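Field log, afternoon session.

UNIT: design team B
ACTIVITY: writing a sequence onto a fixed backbone
BACKBONE:
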């Protein structure tokens, strides 16, 4: 348990090996491939021989857990649940790789709850049994809610708390004095509790790391090293991840004892998954196309827009406000309560558009960053002097939450489209961004704006530094998606039809100055801090008043207001309507149900008695004055 986290000495994860090539029990190729970075025949056989179950009732779970599962409307277990839950119930250490939205949370929460309930039938001693470690506060809140949902019918027997809120040591000591059965935390907060003697790990039976490939990337290596040294030898460990990286291999060696590794690959059904498109445009044309997409409703439903930094969040939001397009922002400067509430309201369909800054991007398994690649090319061309990359001036930045992350782990529900307004800096980060849509068998669309080299810094008010490498990053993205059997298609807007909207875009951008962005940013953070901290206790006592102060998409307003921009005059539209703006053969992907039926309701319905067909809202076109009937007063 005293092995140090050193990525440089860690062997790389082995390449995927199809299950049918191993001399063990066969598993359908389209269902699962089981392996571990240092694959052994015994481990593969253990995982491959795990019988799949059709329903949760076959697992001999506590009836209260089965009742909670039914309440959550889980019809049948997903692939990761079929394979992981039986292994975890048998006490086996586990490392499972499964795509986002595949049900990993239930796969590790249910076995832990089952073990605690089983122990309490014979032993009522109070001690902390399970520690769930996650990389971000948003994910900690999501996991804590999942625990509450699955333990809804046994809440008296299971207690769980999360330690991600910033509280004083006195409050922390008070929270842990009740010895909760389960603790959900980031590694930093967990180690602080342990080192302060508020939390004892001596009797811990279960350790779970969710999004394990992110934990080291978020700078938790020292915290994990110290936690690992304090763990009992008999602990059962579960690692869940969307990818098998060298970081995951390092954690496996540090925390696990002979784990079974599940590398689960699910083939998408025909028509499912993300349709990926890319638009090459100038820097100011990003704003033009975004305006057209949302104002003319080329994309309807819920959408996530990823931008490069916090300033970019507010610039785009202020730009949208000029046209009456409502949106809210999500970034690391906002209080954690605000961020969590914003995600909840988005999932409840209160907001349709979130503009998020993805500040913790990952290079993942990419061999080199773009800068390193350029340095090698320069060295080969011009010698050692040219090899040193240019140093960039460090900018003073506001205090941000390092435990913030939006592109991984968070369950954004029913996202119709993901728009990469600013392209990420790695193909790994791109994959995680587009994973926010097309979850749980649905369809979705990803649209990325790419700035060609000849257009970079041609429009200084809208430029961003990361756009300089867009074409090189796009090449990597196309290559990585091709390996996964997916295609990134070009999406060409008819710019001759779009040109009529350009002067309105320029009018709006002139109002979104640096001063306006800075003032809007400061004003919103001040307002959100007020909502988050000072009124938190008041809202707990008066929950009905919460709705009046927690809207996150209220207008920030620039100094120069242009109300005429909120309306689109008909003379700007093409003769053939908005369909003329985009190619006919490529359309934005509709969101459909799992059974393949469209979500749009029919305009007609049938009367079961007479078999007649009536139009919904049939009275809409009538003149109410001609059909009005009434009696005069006597």
């Amino acid at each position: 348990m005293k092995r140090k986290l050193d990525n440089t000495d860690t062997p790389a994860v082995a390449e995927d090996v199809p299950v049918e090539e191993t001399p063990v029990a066969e598993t359908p190729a389209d269902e699962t491939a089981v392996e571990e970075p240092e694959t052994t025949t015994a481990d593969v056989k253990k995982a491959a021989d795990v019988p799949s179950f059709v329903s949760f009732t076959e697992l001999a779970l506590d009836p209260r857990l089965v009742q909670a599962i039914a309440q959550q409307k889980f019809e049948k277990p997903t692939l990761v649940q079929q394979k992981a839950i039986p292994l975890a119930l048998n006490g086996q250490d586990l490392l499972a790789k499964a795509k986002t939205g595949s049900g990993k949370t239930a796969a590790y929460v249910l076995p832990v709850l089952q073990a605690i309930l089983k122990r309490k039938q014979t032993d009522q001693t109070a001690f902390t049994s399970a520690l769930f470690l996650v990389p971000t506060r948003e994910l900690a809140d999501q996991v804590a809610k999942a625990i509450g949902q699955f333990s809804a019918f046994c809440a008296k027997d299971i207690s769980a708390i999360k330690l991600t809120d910033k509280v004083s040591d006195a409050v922390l000591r008070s929270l842990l004095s009740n010895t909760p059965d389960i603790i959900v935390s980031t590694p930093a907060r967990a180690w602080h509790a342990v080192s302060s003697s508020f939390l004892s790990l001596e009797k811990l039976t279960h350790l779970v790391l969710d999004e394990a490939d992110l934990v080291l990337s978020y700078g938790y290596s020292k915290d994990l090293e110290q936690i690992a040294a304090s763990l009992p030898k008999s602990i059962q460990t579960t690692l869940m991840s969307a990818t098998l990286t060298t970081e995951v291999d390092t954690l496996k060696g540090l925390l696990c004892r002979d784990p079974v590794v599940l590398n689960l690959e699910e083939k998408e059904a025909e028509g499912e998954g993300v349709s990926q498109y890319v638009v090459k445009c100038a820097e100011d044309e990003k704003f033009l196309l975004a305006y057209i997409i949302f104002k003319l409703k080329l994309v309807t439903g819920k959408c996530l827009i990823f931008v490069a930094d916090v300033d970019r969040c507010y610039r785009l939001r202020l730009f949208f406000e000029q046209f009456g397009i409502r949106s809210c922002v999500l970034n690391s400067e906002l209080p954690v309560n605000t961020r969590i509430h914003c995600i909840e309201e988005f999932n409840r369909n209160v907001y349709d558009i979130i503009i998020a800054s993805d500040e913790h991007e990952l290079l993942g398994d990419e061999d080199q960053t773009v800068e390193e690649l350029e340095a090698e090319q320069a060295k080969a061309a011009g010698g050692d002097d040219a090899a040193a990359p240019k140093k960039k001036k460090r900018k003073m930045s506001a205090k941000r939450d390092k435990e913030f992350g939006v592109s991984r782990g968070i369950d954004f529900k029913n996202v119709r489209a993901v728009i990469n307004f600013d392209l990420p800096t790695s193909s790994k980060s791109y994959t995680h961004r587009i994973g926010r849509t097309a979850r749980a068998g649905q369809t979705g669309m990803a649209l990325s704006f790419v700035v060609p080299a000849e257009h970079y810094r041609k429009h200084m008010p809208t430029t961003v530094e990361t756009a300089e490498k867009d074409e090189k990053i796009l090449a990597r993205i196309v290559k990585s998606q091709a390996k996964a059997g997916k295609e990134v298609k070009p999406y060409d807007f008819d710019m001759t039809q779009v040109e009529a909207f350009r002067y309105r875009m320029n009018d709006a951008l002139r109002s979104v100055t640096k001063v306006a962005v800075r003032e809007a940013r400061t004003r919103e953070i001040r307002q959100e801090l007020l909502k988050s901290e000072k009124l938190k206790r008041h809202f707990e006592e008066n929950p009905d008043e919460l709705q009046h102060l927690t809207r996150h998409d209220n207008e920030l307003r620039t100094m120069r207001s242009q109300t005429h921009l909120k309306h689109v005059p008909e003379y700007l539209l093409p003769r053939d309507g908005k369909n003329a703006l985009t190619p006919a053969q490529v359309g934005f992907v509709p969101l459909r149900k799992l059974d393949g039926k469209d979500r749009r309701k029919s305009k007609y319905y049938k009367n079961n008695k007479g078999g007649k067909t009536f139009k919904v809202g049939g009275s809409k076109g009538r003149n109410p004055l001609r059909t009005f009937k009434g009696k005069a007063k006597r």
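LOG NOTE: The domain at 7-263 is CATH 3.40.50.300 (Rossmann fold).
NEXT ACTIVITY: expression trials, pending approval
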